[in-house]
Amino acid sequence: MANRHEADLDWLYGREQRRSEPEPTRVMPAPADRGESRAAAAPPAAAAPPAPPRPAVRPTPADYPRTPAYGAGFAPDPRGVPPQGPGGPYGPDGPGGPGDGSRRPRRRRRPVRTFFRALLVLVLLGVVWLVGVPAYAWSQVGRVDDTPSGKRPGDQPGETFLLVGSDSREGLSKAQQKKLGTGSVAGQRTDTIMLVIKPATGKPVLVSLPRDSYVDVPGHGQDKINAAYAIGGPDLLVQTVEQNTGLRVDGYAEVGFGGFVSVIDALDGIRMCVPSAIKDQDSHLDLKKGCQTLDGTTALGYVRMRKADPRGDLGRVERQREMLAAVAKKAASPATVLDPVRYWRLCNATASAVRIGQDTTIVDTGQAALALRTVSAGDGLTLTVPVANPGYSTPVGSAVLWDASAASDMFAQIARGDTSKLGKYAK
């Protein structure tokens, strides 16, 4: 027994020499004393791994695994927790990202906001263009002395604007006079005399005063109304109109032959509907019946022609009103306002063509333009002063004699600022 016990101890404490071949598994005998045997036979227990040190600071988002950025296959968390992306929930430049975490995250510019900003800039530039070009042109307009002498009518409701078409050849060469059919008559007369009325009540009115109207010219007796301009210029013409109509003139403008042509050409012509064929050698006019576009030269002949018109001067004033309304309509059309080239040419051509009175303001001119635009759209009235005799014989030749009673009534209604009952005088 002693040898066997010694052999067991040698195996237990490893004192036995290792053999070349593996030793077969031995069966340990049951010890007599369970407590001592178990204590002696049990292998030493493995040491427990040391507990990880407790962090001194709170972990940051950088300590956690990084996941794809928000939007790369992730939907918002319904609990309201922002999804994790590179560098944490705020992107690379947020806390824990490669950038400076103290900076606020960058926001992407929204295409819609950028579009509306660009649109706003374009609108502002358009407004500057639409206002700036007429303002510049206004600074280039010539001025004339139109203030009459003597007693004048008092202020009246509404606005009255005197528009004159002069037959001045000033600035026209011999070749241009021949081309336009104006002749080379010296001096200035008025081929066209119109009153543009913007009343306090009622529709705007455009009133024609025939150039051969036989009236009293202050200081010069009875004569044709266009003689007033030839004798004393704009101021005497204004005084003559005020004295014979009872209306106070608030604004004045005149345009010559050359200016009229340049304005029509700046608009690329005016479309008119000719009721019958016209052929007039004096005005160099040869038109077929029907609607057609007239250039500046042809349009001038159309509004000046009277010998080929059986109604003479009365027919001419109707064509002049028709032409003026067409010019106002086309000048205010979107095709003109939105075309930078045409808009620039029109404003500068008008500035070169027109001369205004010394006291005429841009407000007066603007109100007259709006009234003309309303008339051209068919929402106003076009009138000719009531006539008693279109071929009245006078010492200065055949003239137009007004119907004194009807003309006095028409002008009295205008002077009161009410045009609502002038329909009976419409022509």
Automatic annotation (TrEMBL):
Keyword Cell membrane included in the entry's annotation: no
Chain intervals with Basic and acidic residues compositional bias: 1-24
Gly residues: compositionally biased ranges: 87-100
Organism: Microlunatus antarcticus
Lineage summary: Bacteria, Bacillati, Actinomycetota, Actinomycetes, Propionibacteriales
Keywords: Membrane, Transmembrane, Transmembrane helix
InterPro entries membership: LytR/CpsA/Psr_CW_biosynth, LytR_CpsA_psr
Biased composition (Pro residues): 46-58
Pfam families xref list: LytR_cpsA_psr
Renumbered residue ranges of the record's region Disordered: 1-109
Protein's UniProt keywords contain Transmembrane helix: yes
Taxonomy, superkingdom: Bacteria
Domain Cell envelope-related transcriptional attenuator: 189-332
Stretches of the chain forming a coiled coil according to its record: none
Protein name: LCP family protein required for cell wall assembly
Protein family per UniProt: Belongs to the LytR/CpsA/Psr (LCP) family.
Transmembrane stretches, start-end: 114-138
